[in-house]
Amino acid sequence: MIDSSGVSRLVRLLAVAFLVLWAASPGTAAAGQRRLGAASVAATHLYNMDYSTGTIEVYGIGPGGAVLEHSFNVVRVKNGGVGGLAVDRYGVVYTAVDASSGHPCSACFEAFEPDGTLLAQVAAPTLPGATNPPDLTDISVDNAGDVFLSDYGQQAVYAFAPSPKGFVGPAIVVEGTTNAASVAATPNGRVVFVSGGCGFASVRPYTLQTSGGYASGNCFGIGTIALIGGAVDNQGTVFTPVDGALGIVSMSDAAGRGRAFAVPDRKGEIGGVALSGDGSFLYVSDHHHERVYVYQRPAQGWLSRTGPILVAEYTGFANLDVIAVSP
């Protein structure tokens, strides 16, 4: 077993190796390479999960910066915690919850209106053969409204599908894995990435089959220890902050391609990244300066030699951490 100091050292070594291989790649976009008007940026709202308090904040974003519209608490962190943040195309907010007190639940996911009105609460299932109780650590939602959960306690990833009578499931993506700590589904729901069973700073893709079920792919490296705070697009590009390195964001895919780029704040504390609905804009949260940077996808794709193009910066935030955006 590796103790906490060993994990920290390993993460730093991974970050250094990652930067040597990727950040030096030619063509990485310089900060401020191109600026467009705020009207060119797709999202109108940004959502922030403050892990220290279990609070979700909803900001309107526009030419004047960010304006806090709603703030609501999900769980008292002394009795539990939240696991991940996701927003669907209708602006419904999702998070996973674990609470030893049983309030609001022992292990469940919840869906909210942006003003904090609770729309649904779905208990985590008890899986046959699991030796530990559910422990939900992350959540992802695709464009169809399917909710994917990583369950560290039962070492599984599963999904719930929306229906007129509520959510139905679970549909198992994978179980019996190790360190199933986080999950990210592509917007079309065809591929689910899981940071489990591959070691540190790696993920494995699971592809939905026409006959049902998911086929396991090969592990590949990412820039962080898990996917919490990361994002993926329909091309299978995985975006994450880089653990152990200030102000760096990584991009990688299963084909072994990868790049990294730096935000303007060289001391940036990157809590999370999020993609616009069509995958053409990447939002990066910086807790150090409490601002969000917006990058546009180059014409040749995110992993092209051109590199991401900085098009906007938003201020007016507080306690930035894991984020999501919606139109």
Describe this structure in words.
- The chain is mostly beta strands and 327 residues long.
- It has a single domain (29-326), classed as 6 Propeller (Neuraminidase).
- The protein has one helix at 4-23; strands spanning 45-50, 55-62, 65-73, 80-87, 93-99, 107-112, 118-123, 136-141, 147-151, 156-163, 166-175, 183-185, 191-194, 202-208, 214-216, 220-221, 231-232, 238-241, 248-252, 258-262, 270-275, 281-286, 291-296, 309-314, 322-326.
- Strands 12, 13, 14, 15 and 16 form a five-stranded antiparallel β-sheet that branches.
- The protein starts with a helix and ends with a strand.
- 48% of the residues are buried.
- Residues 1-40 have low confidence and may be disordered.
What is the SS-derived class?
mainly beta
Given the structure, what is the number of helices?
1
Identify the overall geometry. Answer: globular
Q: How would you name the CATH homologous superfamily?
A: TolB, C-terminal domain
Order of helices and strands: HEEEEEEEEEEEEEEEEEEEEEEEEE
- State the separation between the terminal residues, measured CA to CA: 44 Å
- Helix proportion of residues, in percent? under 10%
Beta-strand residue fraction: 35-45%
- Low-confidence stretches are 1-40
Largest sheet: 5 strands, antiparallel
CA radius of gyration is 19 Å
Mean pLDDT value: 86
CATH architecture: 6 Propeller
State the domain count: 1
